[in-house]
Design a protein that fits this description.
The protein has 8 helices and 4 strands. It has helices at about 5-15, 20-30, 40-50, 55-75, 85-95, 100-115, 120-130, 135-150; strands at about 20, 55, 80, 115-120. It is mainly alpha-helical and about 150 residues long. Helices cover about 70% and strands about 5% of the residues. The chain has one domain (about 5-150). Helix 4 (about 55-75) packs parallel to helix 6 (about 100-115).
Amino acid sequence: MIKASLTEFVRKAMGKGRISFGDVQRLQRDILPDGLASREDAELLFDLDRGVSKADPSWKGWLVFTTVDFVVWAERPTGIVDEATARWLAIALTGGGTALTRTARLIAREIAEEAHGFEGDALLALAAIAGPTGSGSRMLHAEGASLCAA
C-alpha cells in the first residue's frame, strides 16, 4: 500500500512543478528509506517524473537506482525479470501511452544491464522502451548509488 506521506510528497511536488535536491534527500531519508516497497510506489514516482517540468539532477540518479534495485532485486524471482514484470514496467514507464521521459528510458536500459536473466520476451519488452544504449547510463547508476549511500 502507498504510504500517505509518499502520496502527499508527490502531490506537493506536482503542485510546485519541480523536484529539488532537498526533496530527493527527504524521499531517501524520510519517506522511502528502504527503497520502493511496491509497484504502486514506483508508479507514483513515474507519474511524478512525467509531471514536473524541473528536477534536480540527483532526482534522475536516485529514481533510476531505486527502481533498478526494486525491479531486479526486490521483485521475485530475484535477479530475473519475468515477462509480467517487464510488461508492467513498460506500461508504468509510458504512463499508459504518453511519451517516455529520458529517465524512463534510462531505467529500462539499466534494468536490462543489471538483471542476471530474463524470462520469455521480457528483454524485448525492455529493449522496446529503452532505445539505443547511451554512454551516460553507468555514470547515472553510480551517481544514484552514491546518493543512496549518503
